[in-house]
Here is the input.
Amino acid sequence: MACLYGKVHPYRDAFEVFLPGCFSESLSEKTKVVFSIDHDQSVTLGDTRSNLELIDSEDGLAFRLKSTADDLTKLSDRERMSVFYRENEVDEQTIDGEKVRFIKRATLLDISAVYRGAIKQTFLTIRDNETGPLDVKSIASESVAVEHRRVLEEYSEAMHAYASARRRLN
Here is the structure.
């Protein structure tokens, strides 16, 4: 998933939430969207006019990129996704003393494979030769599984660090 809707994430001095359908207008206008690495326009792997398919749903923005072996090398260990966009309509509110920006309409310009995305639950999964329509519901549930795996990995690392520190103290 390139972007998940309804997920609060930090953005500059505030928080931000992409609302479902915020990219619908730009997607229906067939605006060219690029797939890049770290939002670097000099390192692109494709676009919506050639090998990138975008699927908008209530859960978020899914994608499929037809790529080459060379493209996979460029991805390195990047597992997360990020979107670059131009805001068209934003609703700013103060909630519990915090500024929250609700993105209602935006023009999607770029999706990128990144090491760390603003929305932690976004992810990049590499699959071999998938064809047919994307099943966004299964992708959304895969997002939950990916996030659980990340949490377990972080917990395991913390437990190893804790055990190592205890051994040094004894």
Observations:
- DSSP finds three helices and nine strands in the chain.
- The chain has a mean pLDDT of 82.
